[in-house]
Amino acid sequence: MAVLSGSITFSKFYVRGELPEGGPEPLVEAISLRAFKPLVAEEEAEERVGWCSVEDPLDNALEHDKVFFNHYINLGLRLDRWRIPAPLFKAAFRQAERETLAANGREKLTRREKDELKFTITRALRRKVLPAMRVVDLSWNTEERVVRFWSQSPSMVAMMTDLFEDTFPVELVPDGIYTGARERGLDPEQLAELPMLEPSRFVMEA
Amino acid sequence: MDLVETMQKSAFLGREWLVWLWFKSELFEGPFRLDPHGEVEVWLQDQLTLEASAMELEQSQLKGPAPSTTPEAREAMRQHKLPTAARIGLRRGEQEYAFSFKADSLSLGNVSLPALVKEETDERFYERMYLLEELEVMLDALYAEFLELRLAPCWGNELLCAIRNWIYDKPSMSVDRYLELLGEVRAPKKPAPPVEDAAHA
Question: Which of A158, A203, B92, B165 has the least C-beta neighbours within 10 A?
Fold first, then answer.
């Protein structure tokens, strides 16, 4: 819940493009379409990402009051991943392999049989464990057209950018030297000169 | 040049911004005027990382009460290392901030805000965002000042020499001269004189 309290470490983006007309309701609908859906053991998916409430990661019923804080849109990006501990999987697999071999009076499984057994064991263990959950907050100042995402991890930033741009018909441009200069009001002439600059020599040559 | 290429080409400027900020903080040794925010004070705190260029991949990580004031910090710059990350303090009036700053991405981390007074969750959120955005606005003004100077002739003609002297612990520049240069850069440009018509020359 970093938007509301706790440590402040974030990546900053500028929003490019126009939002659909119709006020907040189209935005709430778009968010609901990309709300987080829990992983199910029988599905193929190893992981899933979606939006959740910034106040409760288990709440994915994202109505207006849970998302809009005046002109801010606050969301949690929730990522669930199946993580079966390797020793647990190995132990379960060996036991199942022994039982299968004993039941069939054989000494060895074929590669295909092993793959099928791995699939079965994975599904069985997924019914017994909970997926690992990770939540990172996002705050969108819709007046300033700035998004702050409470992570600087490249993989999380990439995931968030994909989800955000799937949800809303806009583009996120990361803050940085050049985009920062453009956003901070450098005039076009100065902006054109910026990429032409060469690094300064701070060290006196002998 | 597309946007990605432009961004990559300009990336070194973040490190130069940090050099300039470090230089300015030691030049003024206290509050200075930052329009339109009034008097602010900036100082480097307890963590400073300097790196050589990508080819050399050498890094100096300095920690302590004031690593930027140590001989090791200056020596690192003399070895062609520039600051890539620093913990920075910023004060305006009674409000004091601290944050970790990464020069290559201009990103902020572990931001410490002035003490919050609101208690309700929603009100605390608005207060947090207000203070964070105030910090960013002040950093924007500092970045704008750096870019104005960096793009002006005085950078190559005078400021760079002053920063070099500072790196080598030599007399660099007075506060008054710095403010004069800034004033000159910000002065409205005089219109170019009219070109004489050749027929009437």
Answer: A158
